[in-house]
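Postdoc handover notes: sequence design on the structure in folder B. Input tokens:
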């Protein structure tokens, strides 16, 4: 959404606002929450997000403020849509570009027909393990913290739904895709399993969340635009306050 659209909005952050944000690359979801919360000072408001995005992912992040934070679980439960790119012929421990390639595979035996057909086992109701490098908590600690210490963890199988998994471009080693999935689906795990199904390897190189429920990325604000708007609004309100007379 353009910065000009902000001027057309009227916000009531205390009562509760739902903010659609385009999360920048390498920002954590909590980075975005913190940035917006700080921009709302001196108001002491609750700010939370409805569905974590990995730091290397971009796209739609739903933020709720004030009383609307009570509805975060409702927004988080909605299905999500993603577009992205996977790299075939290699794997990484994190299933994405956070870690270095640890194994490589030849691409000579891969055909476009096999790649298209490989989506079928991962469409519908499926089971998957979360990545070892993920924010899932085990005994109160995030898995990625344990993974970075080199600790092995027993991962629990989870059930998820993937109504749509389509290949949109093949230019080996790159393969573009579009996925619609339920809450809790790990696209990195899906990509890794996809590579294994092809008797090859795969890791995620790019991921963008384009939709969450009925909310679309095209309607989202850029973080910098929203922060600038809130800063200007705060300064304007401060300037309008009557000064005390001595």
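Designed sequence:
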């Amino acid at each position: 959404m353009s910065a000009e659209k902000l001027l057309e909005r009227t916000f009531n952050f205390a009562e509760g606002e739902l903010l659609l944000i385009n999360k920048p690359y390498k920002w954590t979801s909590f980075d975005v929450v913190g940035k917006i919360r700080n921009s709302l000072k001196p108001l002491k408001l609750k700010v939370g997000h409805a569905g974590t995005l990995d730091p290397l992912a971009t796209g739609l992040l739903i933020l709720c403020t004030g009383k609307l934070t009570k509805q975060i679980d409702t927004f988080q439960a909605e299905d999500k849509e993603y577009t992205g790119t996977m790299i075939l012929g290699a794997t990484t421990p994190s299933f994405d570009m956070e870690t270095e390639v640890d194994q490589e595979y030849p691409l000579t035996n891969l055909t476009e027909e096999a790649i298209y057909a490989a989506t079928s086992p991962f469409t519908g109701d499926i089971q998957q393990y979360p990545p070892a490098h993920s924010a899932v908590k085990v005994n109160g600690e995030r898995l990625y913290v344990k993974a970075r210490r080199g600790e092995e963890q027993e991962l629990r199988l989870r059930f998820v739904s993937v109504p749509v998994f389509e290949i949109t471009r093949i230019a080996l080693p790159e393969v573009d895709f579009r996925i619609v999935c339920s809450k809790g689906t790990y696209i990195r795990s899906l990509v890794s399993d996809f590579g294994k199904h092809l008797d090859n390897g795969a890791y995620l190189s790019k991921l963008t969340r384009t939709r969450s429920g009925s909310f679309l990325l095209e309607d989202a604000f850029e973080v910098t635009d929203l922060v600038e708007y809130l800063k200007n609004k705060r300064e304007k309100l401060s300037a309008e306050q009557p000064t005390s007379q001595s």
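Context for whoever picks this up: The chain has seven helices and 15 strands. Don't rerun without checking with the PI first.
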